[in-house]
Amino acid sequence: MVGLIRILGRLHVCVGGICACAVSLAAAPALADGTDPAYPGSVLHVSVTGPRVAGQVLTIVATGTNAPDSLGLPIDYGLDVILVDLSELPGPCQQGYNAELTNVTDNPQAGRLITFEALNEGTAGPFKISLPFTPGGSGQLLVCAYSVFITDDAAYASTQVQIAPKGGKPVNIKRPQVTRSGNRLTCSRGSWSGRPSSYSYRWMVGGNAVASDRKARLTVTHTLRGHGVRCAVIARNAAGSSTATSRPLAVP
Cα(173)–Cα(214) distance, rounded to whole angstroms? Predict the structure, then answer.
């Protein structure tokens, strides 16, 4: 649970009783390409690595480079990351950190703020910062990252990740089935746990594929007659894919 406490114009972010401080003054939004024109040499990328399963630790990785001050003065950039539950609050990420922070503050059920205030990117030059995060539930998670100097957004980046339910890859509960109507075969999905996000199909005679596409329907041709035709269903979620194969259906 994240607590947001506003004190004297600054935003204190509390996670598990530990508080960090971020400036909450208005800032000019960054451009759509992710870099503010005042910081043309600043670049930011964000990605997610590791298992994408509820209850398992994944890693948010921010990489990029920072522009030096025009006078050659040292500048300490900070990195702020906001995680948004897309089932509660539609994306995309706002182009400015404070705009996205307002989104989360106004919709506290939708987002969780992670600050890197104690892990500054540093002065000009390349950087790489990693932070472990354990998603508590499944669904689409939007990661909004901002490189900030005081109240200015130097750059921003975003990525989206599908978090699978606990238990990992889909598990087949009821196998697929091939049925025939006229000159068309149809493959049912069967039943699955793990909330698959997509399905594809493979048709086979023996161990050989008989169709290049992966659709749920197949037209009967003379090459199939006299053989047993099976279909395989490949179910996918963020944790990976699993395959279940039907019993063969004889095609007279």
Answer: 21
User: Please, what is the average pLDDT of the chain?
Assistant: 78
**pLDDT above 70 coverage of the chain, percent:** 81
**Integer Cα distance of 59 and 46 in angstroms:** 10
The CA-atom distances, in angstroms, between 155 and each of 58, 84, 114, 174 are: 24, 19, 17, 49
CA 91 to chain centre: 12
Q: CB of 251 within 8 A of CB of 224?
A: yes
pTM of the model: 0.60
The segment with the largest mean pLDDT, out of 2-11, 97-106, 144-153, 240-249, is: 240-249
Buried b (16+ CB within 10 A) or exposed e, 147-157: bbbeebbbbbb
Structural domains of the chain ordered from first start: 2-163 (2.60.40.10), 171-251 (2.60.40.10)
Task: Name residue 192's amino acid.
Answer: W
